[in-house]
Amino acid sequence: MQGKIKTTEARAKEIRGLAERLITKTKKGDLANIRFAQRFLPKTALNKLVKEIAPKYKERAGGYTRIVKLGQRSSDGAPVVFIEFI
Which of 29, 33, 36, 52 maximizes the CB count within 10 A of its CB? Predict the structure, then answer.
């Protein structure tokens, strides 16, 4: 909903595949692909994806997200990153 989140690198890499797939499917705009996205997202996030995010990437072939490394978390040393829409 905010456009970017701060999380661990492993989670960001896992999220990236799902986010890219959902954007690719919803930018086509047909009902079957929107219903596919509905399985993974709450209603407010789905509306934002269909009405704001997907049309923004209509001409783009892929690569909708970016991972920016921030360093390591002090408590356990896990690598922390931002994942955001380009």
Answer: 33
Entry pTM: 0.82
3-class SS of residue 77: coil
Helix intervals (H) in 27-64: 31-38, 43-48, 54-56
> In CATH, what number is assigned to the domain containing residue 12?
3.90.1030.10
Neighbouring C-beta atoms of residue 83, cutoff 10 Å? 21
State the virtual CA torsion across 47, 53, 56, 58 in degrees, nearest 10: -80
The arithmetic mean of pLDDT across residues 11-16, rounded, is 94
Distance CA(60)–CA(50), nearest Å, equals 15
